[in-house]
Amino acid sequence: MQGNNLHSSNTTRAAAADKLPFTRYDFGWVLLCIGMAIGAGTVLMPVQIGLKGIWVFITAFIIAWPATWMVQDIYLKTLSESETCDNYTDIISHYLGKNWGIFLGVVYFLMIVHGIFIYSLSVVFDSASYIKTFGLTDADLSQSIVYKAAIFAVLVAIASGGEKLLFKISGPMVVVKVGIILVFGFAMVPHWNFNNITAFPPVAVFFRDVLLTVPFCFFSAVFVQVLNPMNIAYRKREPDRLLATRMAVRTHRISYITLIAIILFFSFSFTFSISHEEAVSAFEQNISALALAAQVIPGKIIHLTSTVLNIFAVLTAFFGIYLGFHEALKGIVLNLLKRVMDPEKIDARLLTLGICVFIVITLVIWVSFRVSVLEFFQLGSPLYGIVSCLIPFFLIYKVRQLEKLRGLKIWLILLYGILLCLSPLLTLMG
């Protein structure tokens, strides 16, 4: 009888979840997810297609984007099954114990660190470049410690204000960013020329280029960094774990479908408008699709919109990944503190302030090394493969609570994770 009541309760909750309204809060997370994903990978996609050919791209995205969907969906569901949900390390500790929690928490932290280090470099150097270009100063502000500290202090203060403040600031930026992408896509429609579609390449070259393009497609559409902060936010907002999980999964689904539609339209619109020779020229000049659009759109408009797009892309991505960075760092610190002191004695406000100050100092020091963004970017693929593919696979086959997620899909995710881990070696094939 009790089992029937429990089944009836779960059925009722599931039905209620299906009827949940889509609120402004949900829309805010959709924008944050899309804002996290749309960036350099999106505007470089047409150049990559032009280099490798449309047939390679079609095959690569048929492999990569459904796989990326499965990876993020399973990743989110493994996090959502935990009874506790304060941070990533806490969730892993719930499943496997504190030692596994700290170990895998560090791996997760390294993935987030990789992302925020990339965007911190872009924030400082791009903003300093624009300030100098527009004649606001003759000095290179990226050399100034005061400038770097001020930039990061302001951004960290905003990002630490909670998701609602981020929605108000990042939301309009994402809308403008998506608007610019769509306008450029539509502007290229009159210039479509299907003669630009190249012939099918030799089989050996085709398979090699598909393997090289799959990771590129993955990074053009991934926003796994923001999924755990989103999961935690929904769990804190909705006490019913089932409903919170369904809301988070729904937001992920809407975000991903919208994102893929935008990328596909933008990429194909440019692909039909540029020849292989123009793509090669763009690659050699290290320019994006926006520069190619200057051929049909007045230069001043391109200059203004590309500047706005770049600034908004970097800021929204920084805000999105900061949530994960702060949460990952907090999880590691709490895991260590709970080993030596009573959790009740930990001052949450003081801990948050200390983490924020530490982040600002760390980012200032990191940016001062002036590491190449492109070289550092290449190191990230294995970290994403481990955190978003290999760790969920390990959890699902290690934890009885997650056994309902087992199946063929998980083995495909494992293979995809191995491919991401090997992708730095695959670049040597090019």
UniProtKB/TrEMBL annotation:
Membrane topology listed for this record: Multi-pass membrane protein
Keywords: Cell inner membrane, Cell membrane, Membrane, Transmembrane, Transmembrane helix, Transport
GO cellular component, one term: plasma membrane
InterPro entries associated with the record: Amino_acid_transport_2 (IPR018227)
Chain ranges passing through the membrane: 27-47, 53-71, 102-125, 145-162, 174-192, 212-234, 254-274, 301-325, 346-369, 381-399, 411-429
Compartments where found: Cell inner membrane
Main localization, broad class: membrane
One GO term (biological process): amino acid transmembrane transport
Pfam short name (any one): Trp_Tyr_perm
Protein name: Transporter
